[in-house]
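Anyone able to model this chain together with iron/sulfur cluster?
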Amino acid sequence: MFITAPPSTIQPPLDLFAAIQDLKRDLNAVILAHYYQEPDIQDIADYIGDSLGLSQQAASTEAEVIVFAGVHFMAETAKILNPQKQVLLPDLAAGCSLADSCPPAEFAAFKAEHPGHIVISYINCSAEIKALSDIICTSSNAVKLVQQIPPQQPIIFAPDRNLGRYVMEQTGRDLVLWQGSCMVHETFSERKLVGLKTLHPEAEILAHPECETAVLRHADFIGSTTALLNYSGRSDRQTFIVATEPGIIHQMQKQMPDRTFIPAPPLNNCPCNECPHMRLNTLEKLYWAMKNRAPEITLPEPTRLAALQPIQRMLAMSH
Ligand code: SF4
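re: yes, here you go
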């Protein structure tokens, strides 16, 4: 049974930053955070990164406890790589619409309809989908990994159709796409983006490949969150319109305080470009997760072992 809420009679300490640092030392814990986490969590993390960087950190950490400030599939990946370590997720409900768009039973049937295909799955999927895959990829390495597969080998790409289409364009390969998508990256409005660019003609548009083709075709640079961050540092422009979850802007602004970063506008005037799953984690929940050593990620060993192989292939092919 997971403890998801702190005992109601106990108040969290006033200085959560100091309390978390103390717990980190006591537990020999490392805090890994995705760029889409709220600024306070990014500021206390030992490592902030995108999915590839986070899985590489999870694979190499010496810490006994991994506190994963991200969504469920990310913490699950850390557990797949570290069966002996305790992996904590501040809020177990922090899921992912993209991972949810690929149910394992349906995907197994889809795979059976395409005999002879290998399966390359984006890391944003459940452990069960990873276990049905041959190679895992991230948005950082998807193009490079597909380029390493012999041209005559047919490939199923899952679960993100937008990233899949982007990989097809970049590699000239014909991939069989699972039709999944991310609710956040499909929310950007092409019309509003063009309007914003008219107001800031000097700005460069940076976009994540999970965005729809209509948005990507206006981008000056397309890449993973880490690639977008790095690009905005080496570009000679001062202003950037950023088409991905706006959590990354905290790092961009921290590293480049003299530059201007404008979030790309969503379709409605809602904050729906913020990932509701990522934002379930808070500094307070992070504290309680460490204090209670729960919620903890656990996995059946056969699933873990089957999911490990395609991740290890990715890590080996990414060097
Ligand atoms: S931004 Fe999209 S892909 Fe990333 S965790 Fe949120 S729902 Fe999933």
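The pocket of iron/sulfur cluster is lined by residues 36, 71, 96-98, 124, 182-185, 245, 275, 277-278 (CB under 6 Å).
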